[in-house]
Amino acid sequence: MPHLAIMSTVLLVIGTVFVVLAALFHIYVFFLESIAWTRPATWKVFGIRSQQDADTIKPMAFNQGFYNLFLTIGILVGVALLPSVFPAGIALMLMGAGSMVLAGLILLLSAPKSRRSALLQAVPPFIGIVLVVISLAA
């Protein structure tokens, strides 16, 4: 059934695009948390009220920024592996995207006022996961 194969490929591509968009967002968050944290405009994005508070939180933000970067690297390596080592590529993509979804869920549950941030973090990779999984089942 060629139509089913085409649909599966299209869903895989669209799902991969959503996962890559999530990865790009996490690169931006890495930049904010690990590189630009000392800038008042940056820490205000995170609701930090003073330079003193930002300085206190800086080591945790720095660490968290690298967590975001490492998830992104896993996803991008997974995408790069899709043409040659498909199962490993899918596994890396789904692991990174799943971690992003779960972290967004934890943020939503632990800090409901951060709903917008949690949704930005969780929705694109969730959509990507759903589409990739459907493409594999088709």
Report on the structure:
The protein has 138 residues and is an all-alpha fold. The protein has one domain. It contains 5 helices and no strands. The chain has helices at 2-35, 40-45, 51-81, 86-110, 115-137. Helix 1 (2-35) runs antiparallel to helix 3 (51-81). The longest helix has 34 residues, at 2-35. It starts with a helix and ends with a helix. The model has no long low-confidence stretch (mean pLDDT 94).
Name a few traits of the molecule.
86% helix; 138 residues; elongated; mainly alpha
Identify low-pLDDT runs. none
Distance between the termini: 11 Å
Number of helices, counting only DSSP H or I runs of 4 residues or more: 5
Strand content: under 5%
Estimate the global geometry from the Cα principal axes: elongated
Percentage of helical residues?
A: over 70%
Structural class: mainly alpha
Helices and strands, in order, run as: HHHHH
Number of E strands? 0
What is the mean predicted local confidence, pLDDT?
94
- Tally the structural domains: 1
Rg from Cα: 17 Å
